[in-house]
Amino acid sequence: MDNTVTIKDVATRAGVSVGTVSRVLSGSPATSAAARERVRSAVTELGYRPDARARALRSARSNAVGLLLSDVRNPFFAEVAHGAEQAALAASYVTLLANANEDTTQQDTYLEAFLTQRVDGIIVAPQGEGSGNLRALEQARTPLVFVDRTVEDFDVPSVTADNAQGVDLAVAHLAAHGHTRIGYIGGPPSVSTGRARHDAFLAAVASHGLDEDPALIAVGDFRSASGSTAAATLLAGRRPPTAMLAADSLMAVGALGEVRRRGLRIGTDLALVSFDDIEWFKELDPPLTVVAHDARALGESAMRLLLDVIEGRPAESVVQPMRLVVRESSTGRPAD
Predict the structure, then answer these.
(1) What does the alpha-carbon distance between residue 255 and residue 244 come to, in Å, rounded to a whole number?
(2) What are the tens digits of pLDDT across the range 297-307?
(3) How far apart are the C-alpha atoms of 72 and 182, rounded to whole Å?
(4) DSSP state of 266
(5) Please, which residues have CB within 8 angstroms of residue 11's CB and are 6 or more apart in sequence?
(6) Contact yes or no for 149/191 (Cβ under 8 A)
(7) What is the pTM of this model?
């Protein structure tokens, strides 16, 4: 046995990264069966023995946590990040911020990086239905919290908003102002918020006795361009809506642009309501009605929940209430 053999030598012999070797040796399931076999073979061939002192150092807390958000360009998630960061700093932790860019592959890339950096825990606004590295984190019992979104069949505490309440508030408000044909710009069904808000919209329209025409629903991807495309589809229909509800702020921005390009006036020709409030929505002409919840508080709650998990304290999921902020974009009555 050669005591000078290092973990880097094992990685080179096995043809994997140093991080992968480290996870195999620590027993983490966040590796493939093939990689585990190559690492174990390399360890045997080289006679590698982990240094007990280094292992003890590595087991110490890093006082760093990972925060993986869906899209850092979205002002909503910027507020979530700020809330989480400030809560972490108050507890003497630093936050490593990453952007999934609404993509499961990019999500896996950053989860891998967080594992390599040995963060003490991770907050994720998850993409899709549970990517490989996300499932591996859960199975390894890495301290993990979901924020804003969830994934079915994952036993992970979460901080989310009451989507059903928010949708019903918006639909009830528009119905009270005489709208019976409400167009809905929804998020992708691959994301929990996309599914939850879509189902809530169908339920709200039915409960308020409004037009349940499937042509009044268009699907976007929580980005501005898709909001524009969805609005164009809705407005080009044989019987276009007199009001629209956008399932997030960026899609509302896209819809707003499309409405204006068509020479229509928000609040007069068409009512518009958005999920999530952006600071400058109240400065628009007319100001935009929103279904809002406190994004910063969402991040703060998620971080406090993660610290509970890290410390082994009970961690119960939190559902935040939503509220309707009524402004002039939705208070007019539909034209005859």
Answers:
(1) 9
(2) 999 999 999 99
(3) 30
(4) B
(5) 17, 18, 20, 21, 42
(6) yes
(7) 0.79
